[in-house]
Each structure stands twice: as C-alpha cells, then as structure tokens.
Batch of 2 targets.
Target 1
Amino acid sequence: MSKIEEPVVDLELAIQHGLNEGEWEKIIKILGRTPNYTELGVFSVMWSEHCSYKNSIAMLKTLPRSGKRLLVKAGEENAGLVDIGDGLAIAFKIESHNHPSALEPFQGAATGVGGILRDIFTMGARPIASLDSLRFGPLNNPRNRYLFDQVVQGIAHYGNCMGVPTVAGDVYFEDCYSGNPLVNVMTIGIVKHDRVKSATSKGEGNTVMIVGSSTGRDGIHGATFASVELDEESESKRSSVQVGDPFTEKLLLEATLEVARKNYVIGIQDMGAAGITCCTSEMSARGGFGMILDLSAVPLREPNMSPYEIMLSESQERMLVVVRRGFEEEVKTIFKKWDLNCVEFGKVTDIKDLQLYMNGKNVGTIPAWDLVLGGGAPVYERETIEPEYFKEVRSVDLKNLPEPNDYNDVLLKLLSSHNIADKSWIYRQYDYSVRTSTAIPPGSSSAVIRIKGTNKAIATKTDGNGRYTYLNPYRGGAIAVAESARNVVCSGAKPIAITNCLNFGNPYDPEIFYQFKNAVLGMRDACYAFNTPVTGGNVSFYNESPSGAIFPTPVVGMVGLINDISHITTSWFKNDGDFIMMLGTIKGELGGSEYLKVIHNLVAGDAPTIDLPFEKRVHNACLEAIRRRVANSATDISDGGLAVAIAEACISNPDKSIGASVYISRKLRNDVLFFGESQSVIILSINENRLLEMERIAAKNIVPCVTIGRVKDNGRLRMNDVIDVSLEEIKTVYTNAIPGAMKMTS
Amino acid sequence: MKFGVVVFPGSNCDHDTYHVLKKVVGAKVEYIWHKETTLNFFDVIILPGGFSYGDYLRVGAVARFSPVMREVIKFANSGGLVLGICNGFQVLLEAGLLPGSLITNDHLRFRCQDVYIKVANNKTCFSRSYESGQVLKMPIAHYSGNYFADKETLKILEGTERIVFQYCSLDGNVIPEENPNGSILNIAGILNENKNILGMMPHPERAAEKILGSEDGLGIFNSLLRES
C-alpha cells in the first residue's frame, strides 16, 4: 500500500493541476466538500481541454453531425459510424498526438497510432486502413529531420506490427511547426451493423473488468500535458509520454473483436487519455449508471502505486469491458487464450457515482455525469478578435511581382519543394499492402481500399492547408473539406463523411480563437454543401512553442464510397493521344501558393476563393465521367498549381511515365496561370472518341470544361511555349528531394 | 489437397493467406493455432507473415519455441510441404529448417514496395507453374529481409538449384540496383535440401488478384495444388 504522503488539496494545488478558480469552486459545489487528492486528479484530467473540449464544444456543435448514413451521432461513441450498405458500416476517426511527438517523437507517434486503433476496434470494428497527417519545420534543420524521421518510424513500428495498412496522408514543412510538429493519425474500421459495440455501462450488479496490459506510472497527466503550451520545461515532462507495445495491442485487437461478438458484453471502451478515469466516467455517464471500483484489483506494473496514480495512468493497450453478471468466466477464457490480463475490479451500481476503493477503504466518490463532456464539465465561449497580421499579409502587392524568366526552373524548384515532392520516402516505410485490399496504394489522389465480400470500395485522404487557414481561416477550413472531397472524387468515390482534427494555438488568445471559430464555420459550410457530416474527431489547442503559435491547421479525414470497383480511377495519364481536359476554371490567384513561398519567399495575400456549390458540381461532373468510363484519369489542382498537377499526372504511374503537351490560352500572367492554386479544378484524360460525351457531362452539370492538351508518349512535358522539360529531369528532382534532405548530416 | 495456415500471436498475414487459398484458389484451408500440440492431416503448412511474438529479441526467434513448431518440424522432416512467407521465412531459419539468416535491411528501414523477382528454378513443388526465368511482380514489406549465408552455404544453394527467387529488374536482370534490402545474390527465396520447404520474403498472397495490381503470386499456390 502507498505510504507516500498526499499533498494538501487547496486552490493552489488545483491551479497546478491546470484548473482555474471557477472550476475549483464548481468542484466543491458538486461534491459538497473539498475534494481529496485522488478526486482532484480525476476532475483535473476530465476537465482538461483534451477530455472536456470545454473551449471548443460550443463551436463543434455548429458542424453537421447527422445524416442518413450516420448510425451514431458525432461524439456519442469512440468513433463515428457510417453505413455503406450490405449490412456493413465503417467506423473512423482522426486524433492528434502532437505534444507527445514533440518530446519523444518515436513513442509519441507510435502511441498515437495505438490509441486511434483502439478507438476503432473497441466498437467491434476491424481496422482496415490508417492515414497520417503530419506537419514539421523545414528539413534543413537537424532537429526537424530528427522529429520527421522518428515520427515516421514510430508510425511504421506500430502500424506495421498491427497488420493495419497505412495507406494515405499528407505532410507539410513550414517554419511555424518547428518545435511543435503535428502528428494526426486516422484509422478506418469495418463492422457488421449487428456487431457494433457501444461504449456504455448499465445494469446494476453487472461486472466491470480491466483487460490488456497492466497499469504503470507512465503517461500520468498526459491529458493535462496536452492542454498547455510547449515551453523550455516541457522536456522534463517526457514521462508524460507513454510507451507503446504493438504486439500486446495486436493480441488485444483479436481478443476484443472475439469478445465484442458476444451479447453478454454490455459495453467496451479503450483507455486512452485519462485512463481508467475517463473510461469509467464516460461509460457510466452514457448509460446513466455508476460504478464501485476496487483499485487494489487492478494489475500493476510496479508496486506501491497510489489510487491517484492508478486512476490517472495512461499505460497503453488497456480496455474496460462491462459484462453481464455471470459471464465473467467466458470473458476471461477469451482473453486467456490471447495471454492477456482480464480482471474483475468493479460493479455497475444504480447510484450514479464513481466510488473508488483501495484495500477496502474509500478513496474517492464523484458523480460520473459531472465529470464528462455533455454532463457537468465546463463549457466556455471564448472571445474573438480579428488577427492583426491580416492587414500586413493582405496588403502585400502580388500584382507587381517580378515575373520569372525561366519557367522550367520554377517548375523544377516547385517539384523539389518538400511540400510537393514525392512522398515515397515516407510511405515505403509503412506496410500499405497488408490485408490484401489496397486497390490504390499511396501515390495517387487518394487511397482506395476494396471491401472484401462486396463489389464496393472506399477512398480516403487527409488534407488541410495551414497556410491558407492562416491567411483566411474561413476559406482554409472550407478548402480542407473541399480538397479532401475532390481527392476521393478523383479516385471515383462519392464523398460520404469526414472526421476532423483541429490543430490550433492557445484558445484563450482571442486572435487564435478567431482563427478557430472561422475555420470551423468554413468547414461547416463545406460539409453542408457536400453532404458530408462530421462523424467526430479531435481538437488540439495549445500548439505553440516559444517562437509562437502554429498556423491554424484544420485537418480533414475524408471517406468516399465507390459502389462498383470497376470505377476505381488513378490520377496518372495512361494512353498516348488521350486528350487532357480541365473541369473548372483557373482564376487569377496567387495568395498562399507554394509558388509564392518557394520562389518569392512570401506567405501573403488571401487564400484562394472557393464557391462551394460550384465545387459540388465539379465533383458531380467528374464522378459521372468516371462512372461512364469517359475519364481515364483524374487529378485535381492543388499545391503548385496546374503545372505541378500535369507534371505529377505524367510521372506518378509507378510502372511508366508518359509525356504531355499542354496549350492553354488565358489572359493571365504565365506564373499566375501555371502556379496559382485555383480551387475546384480537375484535370482529366479522355480518349478522342469520348470528347463529345465529356462536353455533354460538363454542360449538364454547368461546369466549364476545355481541352488543354494531349498525352504524348515522347518523354517530355511541354506547356505553352514556356515550359519544356524531360520527364527524366522532372522525376529526378521530384523523387530525390526528400531522400536527399534526409541524408544531410548537419 | 488441404492447406494449414499457422497463427502465431502477432501473425498478421494469416487472414490474407487464408483468404487467397479459400476464395481465390478455391482450396481447402484451416488455421492452426500456435498452442496446438497435435496436427490434423495437412498437405501443405504455411507460416504466414507478421510479427510473431512481436519479433522481440530477434525476428522469428521466439516463434520457433512455440508448441506448434515441434509439429511443423516433424511434418517437414517427414517430407511435408512447408511454405514460409516473410516472417514465416524468418521463423523457418530460426527453427533450423532452412540455412542462413535474415538480417536488418541494409538501409536500416522497413521497406514496402512492389518488386520484381525472377524464377531461378521452376522445377520445384512451389514454382512449377512458372516458366524458367519468368519475372514476377509482388510486394515486399519487411524490416529484416536481408538474406545472408556463408560462402560454403551459398555454393551449396547455387550448386543444388535451391535459390528459387531473386530480386531483378522488369526485364529479368539480377542486378544490385534492384536489390531492395541488401540480400546476398539478390536472394528472395530458397529451398531446404529435400526441396519440400520454401522460405521467401515477397508476399505471393498479396499478388493474387487483379484488383491488387498483380496475379503473379497465384503460381505458387497453383504449383502446390498440382502436387495432389
């Protein structure tokens, strides 16, 4: 038993735990007394930003969170659940592990993957694909290279061992992420409707069991740590980062899926942030019951752990299972088969409190409902002020920039920019082909996973442009949704739902909260326009380092459905002589572009404009062209503009590059035309005898569609009379950029 | 013809292998749990890919001590056909059923990609559906696929035509540029002395359906079916 003296609980200690004075008073009111040390710990983690969403939930509620395909509403369960027909549903969610990854990148990223996988299989769904959305500082800095390298290896370590393919993602390198990298991980799982398990607890006398790894002192206060800014002292909080064991998690996955099929299992929830505390309170609050828990029964990794430590530990690879009374042995047999712990440590009670006992002695009693989001956890509406920097960035005169003389050189520079260059250095470290379902591996517009036993597939992609959102939070939020939707459309999928991870700075700064609020509004409008509700996600505030806040970075994880696998389409040109057509229009926009950053060293202007109903019509036209087998390839214009999109369509087929000649007449300066990042534009390649049909499809959807060139098997990319480069040269700079940077030694 | 797919804790290509045998090839197949101490009747036993026992200590090192391996060794020594894919290959080496070892890739990273392999010997129970010298496209996905053996062993392997697959270019040249992991002689798959055990790093089960971009792996399963 613990002999450690517990500190005196007072306001000062509460503040050290990240609570404020109002929250401290609220706790005293709820309990009718001063909390003891364990209770204070429990309140502090449950009311941390990470668990309570106290500063974001009011805004999140403005997002569309229901729809005819959604089987549960956002936030109701561990992950969203979307019907895909055939009695099947997909569960998916994205989560951040930014702060742990800033300190201990390998384990931080690895346990991020572990956590999101558990969120999925706890629902009874088998994980079928993972994605990761990453942001780092520039690779010319050795610390950034170290973070990048270790994060990628950490993701590979965990995901590969689990046998879940990592199939897509996105990555950007930008100064603002130095010191505060972003590591957002997403997993998609599949489950039969009648096998879905809820994260609930009910029925007086039913048994509460803890399964999986034993509980240690790792990760205590991880949730609280995630809810403050990183500073010089953060390094000393390295012990807040958990250590992952993917092998145990693989066993836990198989055992959980086996047990989830049994109807004597009332509910399951994984232990992520705030460990036993979060599971027991959320499950109890959801079911409207309480629990009496014997903490001395919890299998421990080290002796003499206090109730405080047991309740707050974030040891990985653990789950909480509530089992109908009398079926405990059945559950134990399943976990024993997989050589995992499975221990009874509590009972469900009608009294709606969490009653904590240690060696027969009561060590805490808290009403479950008062701890949780949607219950008694605080909710705040924060102040907003339009950021000062807007005036400065928007006043930059982009009309009179010097025009480049050598467009070949500009194109090659853009293709070797790490934000655009080939990402195979990353994804070749991930097992993307395990599960024999990856129909389009990384390297196309989005990844496509076929659904075994059906004729269907899903397409998925993450996107989020921090630079756009910095320049214009509303447009940045809307474009994150639009671009990810466009990317799955280009693979032949209809966008059906999203998950989002909202990475921002300190919400108590009104300028930051302005960014947050407007980015959410942009996402909301785009989600309504595309009929893609938000199934759930994650908010990560306090992404700041001593040099300031990150660019506001909303990341969208999009899922699209392909009803017929013969519609699966890749982004690259295929046939000599095919016509290259452009759906949509290039506008005269340079703001926020990669061209401005790489060539003129500017982050300036306004983000590209976006007309959401028009974007939707472009999707419809593209999907119709794909489904009627008119389009042989489809890719959108994004970072680097038209020239980069065409260059990528020439070289991204892993089996064979193929050239193109493009002629496009517009009254725009060539740099604006070729490198501007106009939204809602898709490039298609089409056989000559289907051109009329394509024009009819475009006209029907009221979208401009013009021929801009032809695919030519001549090994060159030519555009107007300003670009003429060999594909070999393009491929060399494109593929060598990131591996070359990672070989730097200083 | 009945196939058995061993399930170690940490196996993660067991379902894929089972799927291909049952749904694509149409063969009889059963899982074999690692705790089994007696085996039903099987014609072929497959040790699938994955991270058996987390691959802690050393790849395949713990799996060789699992109860089922005693039976697999007995089965193999009595002439039964055994195929080890990726982690399965690593386990076969640790169990002493195949010579040499698989060490960490020369670039020290996990590597997942499609590779081309050349059928160096098509007169085996595992490769008879292929033409001699045929080039196959299949994915690899491993951290420790760098095959190594001493000169003596290599000489024997070469002299007795026990090298079945070698990494090569699209047009069949076995050259260092096409070696994805540093394997000596570009070795991707080898046989035991009696030629009833094959270990290979590429994943034929991931190249057995058109939608996955290659059906070249089917030949291995079809070759085994022709054994009956």
Target 2
Amino acid sequence: MTKSVKAQPGNLFSQLDELLGRRALLKGESRTKYLELRKIIARLMNPEDVFDAIEVQEIVDSIWDSQRFQKLAAKLVDAEFTNALKFLTDSAHGYVSENTEKWIKANRDKAQKSSMTDLEFLKKIGINSGLVLAKSMLLAADDFSALDRLASNRIAARKTAHAGYTRRKKLQAKEKRRAAKAKPQQQILTNDKSLANDNRPTERKNKSLNKSSPDYDSWQDD
Amino acid sequence: MAGRLSRPGDPMATDKQIAANRANAQHSTGPKTAAGKRRSSGNAFRHGLSGPLPNDELTVTATDAIVSALFDGADKPHEDATAFARSQLELRRIRKVRHNMLADSAHESLYPRELRRLIALDRYERVARTKSRRARQLISKRRNSSSDS
C-alpha cells in the first residue's frame, strides 16, 4: 500500500523537504551545519522510506532545538550580567561596604575611559568573574527552568521517535525472516503438488526423482 | 450620574440610582457594529493552534499532495493516510508559529512570558505528534494485514 521503493537518504530528504517544506532556521544559524547533522543521523539510522525519513527528521530537529535552547540559556546569563553587577556593587546587599560603593561610583567612568572592562575594574574590590557569573545564573534561574523544560521535552520527543523507529525496524526484520522461511516451504508444497499431478508410471517417476543419485542398477550389473 | 457601590447596611437603591445604573450600563456594552464585533472576537486569538486544521482548499490540496506522494496511486487512499498527512501539516503549522515567535523576539533573550508560550506550543506539538504516530501505526497494521492476505 505504501511506497516501499528503496531510495538514497539524500533523495528521501529532498522529497520530504518538497512535501513538508524546508526546516526554517533562525538568523545566525547555519544551514550547512544543519544538513551536516542530518547527514550524520541519517547515516546512523539508515532510513529506507519516507516514513523513516520523517522520523529521522524529527530526531534531527529535536537535537537542533536542544542546541538552540542551550544557546538561549547562555544568552540569558549574558543578559543578566548587568543586573548582577548592579546587585553586587550595591552596599545594601552586603557584598561591598558603603565606602566601596562610593569609590566605585567615583571611579567607574575613569575606568571605562581607560578601556578597562567592568570585570577588571571590579577585581580591584574583590569581586571576581565567578561571583558575577554565579549571580547572573541565579537571576536567570526562573527562565533557566523554562528552557530546561523545553530541552527536556526535546529529549523525550527524541527518545520516543527513536524507540518507534527501532520497534518498526525490528518488526520489519522479523517479517522479512518469516517471509524468507515461508518461501522454501512453499516451494516444497508446490513440488509435492507437481508430483501429485504427475501421471507417469511409478518407475519413471522415481527415476526422475533420483536423477542426482548414482545409478544403482548399472552399478550392480558391473 | 455615577452611583457608588453599595455596602452592607446601606438602604436599598432608590429609583433614581437604579435609573442611573441602567443609563451607565448602556455606555459599556461592547462593540455595536459588525466590524467591531468581528475585531473583538479575535481579542483572545494568539496563534489559532487550539482549533483543528481549517478545511480550506489550501489544506485539502496539501493533504492530497502528501497522501499521493506517500501512498501508491493504485490503492485508494484510506482515512489513516489522510490523518497522517493532516497531522504532519499540523506539526508544520505549530513549528511555523514557534519559528515566528523566536524570530520576532528582537532582543537577545526571551522574556518569561514568551518562554511560557513556547512551553505551551510544545503541548500542541506533542498532541500532533501522537496523532501522527497513531496514524502511522494504523497504516503499518493495515499494510501487514493486506500482505498476509
């Protein structure tokens, strides 16, 4: 019923792209890298028809999406960097004293003019990059959990797709084995049927059956 | 004209107050024109994914294209094949909405509200994927039974 013509994975995917449209990528994402990933997964899974290709595509998409969310998580931390700096340099939160806060306000502009980065400047008062990063991560924690959930949804989707694919492949292999087993039996049955329809005398019938065996009569004569 | 809210122990509203309330109510009864009503009917519309796929010409053509590409022309396409094709279209629709959401966020990172919406989109996708998987299972069952017979 379904089209079961074996095709090259590349052809399958181009057929799939034609049918369902090419995977849309965001600005800054590389199409070449995406195709490379798809090629690797296709080589591992060896899709034989369009249905297989759809499943491979799903797995590739879930991997791509997880990577995308990881990048977004990194961006979240970067976005909270300024807020973390504000928090750490505010004496109300106990990381620096009031005097230090005043000193920071007085000298920050100077430091920026002398092309000193914020981290280099804060190092002078004992706030290192690790502390800023930790604070940024804490501030982004709520959004992290959302991204984590999105990523775990992708992992679950990938697992389901892979399990379905493996199950189907196993069933296909089982069917093939069963078909291969059934073939010789069918041949035997057809042989039996041809014998039943054979109207020749019994002697001639046996002779034709034992064609490959040695001719015992002639051997005895010798 | 404006009457204040009644409190426990207040005397019952007078006729004047009741009339004022009725007159005020006429000022806030929503859109009157057809265009206004149509516009306000879409106030809660976000992406339209909670409803089924539309049965318009475009969807029907796309469904037929997928069915004819995946299944032999000699066999009459059965309802599982159509269900499979429609689930694929639904998945495509959800992914398009997600892509637009991600592409539209002009800033570097996403706001928590957008993240919550992305999670909600995942729920729609899960449902569509389940539909697709079930349709595929039914198709392979049908194929096996036809090959056995």
